[in-house]
């Protein structure tokens, strides 16, 4: 094998603790806890889901979640990049606190999460939950570089609080094109070891369905089938839910799909089913995945006792598949400026839907500012666990925003990291400060490039921004950007020169956050 490169008592206890003091805040009995399922989709933009406005793809299962729960319109990933976004979810920390973690990691990277740091799975486990991570990991493996894929992959998910892991070890566009179960490569054979830099027998996938991040058609090991990844991961996730549903302990599942990260390789029955090309077809498979999970919860009789969250690791991407979808009329990020990797809203404002029958009002909508970094504190609160001062330090309990009045606010500011450190950004109330020019993400000026983006992309998309003319930054454009998102959600007008005091206050706040590690 070679490398080619459950019940209302939870809220009552929490409310009682708030009334009579934190000393009364005691762990909740496991039998009284709801199950927790987080579906963390990949590269799904704000405009990729029906209930967020798209008309070129159909997402009936995701839309049904919104009808049964609460849809958030101001939810953000803490990073516009896949690995740092996952780090934020798992640890409840801004990724800039982890050695300035900005970009994705690949097959040679060791685990980027310190094993002595409390994770979202640790919090669930100490409350009595059975825990599993199924799907895309993308947080590194082992404690050395390069990673030894012929040995047990330790440390990994099992050392971070998860009882079980099955999934894609890195990302579906990069090697190794294998599955990992717990801490070993599935199907590994001692007489067929992994060798860096050697080409395996592969199946070159038709470029029509996507291109790898390193260029050219994605080629996979002969035992790996791109078109079966979504169905394989779904089978594992639903099997695990069925097995756990009959047990006494509640369960926590972190299900990270590879949909809709390029290459766009849905199972054949989804190909050609959308009006947005292969990009949209992959969304259709994602919606089916969500439907399989919700149906499994229903069939197991635990849907009413389960908090289910659906969200994305970052915004939609303007890769070749994204460009084709755009030409067909689909807008991955709706009317938002920018794409994956950007500090502009399109890079990190994402769908976020939560369903918890009897707790979250059905068919409700909230404009509360929230983030995936908040899920750790939310799990802790729902599970009756008090966090220590260095456990999820940037995470805020979303439970009031989930179950309270739609206008309930839980946070006033959020640090957001794009791909480039020069564009580290802060949301404060309605204000958004971007500490650099452009989007801070991909910036190739050539249509058709995998890395097409930045100012040049505005000519392709027809979007406008006061700092940009004819796809280029204007001479003399401000070095930083400030937007009032209440008045200008599309970020068409940089008002930093009109509000220097607001910008300086926010710059100082960024300095404070970064220095407080």
Poorly predicted segments? 1-25, 209-220
What top-tier CATH class of the largest domain fits best?
A: Alpha Beta
CATH superfamily of the largest domain: Alkaline Phosphatase, subunit A
Beta strand %: 5-15%
Name given to the CATH architecture of the largest domain: 3-Layer(aba) Sandwich
Task: Provide an overview of this structure.
Keywords: Calcium, Hydrolase, Metal-binding, Signal. GO terms for molecular function: arylsulfatase activity; metal ion binding. Belongs to the sulfatase family. This is Arylsulfatase. The chain is α/β, with parallel strands linked by helices and 517 residues long. It has two domains: 408 residues, Alkaline Phosphatase, subunit A, CATH 3.40.720.10; 95 residues, Arylsulfatase, C-terminal domain. 23% of the residues lie in helices and 14% in strands. The strands form five sheets. Strands 7-6-5-4-10-1-11-12-2-13 form a ten-stranded mixed beta sheet, sandwiched between helices. Helix 6 crosses helix 7. The N terminus is likely disordered.
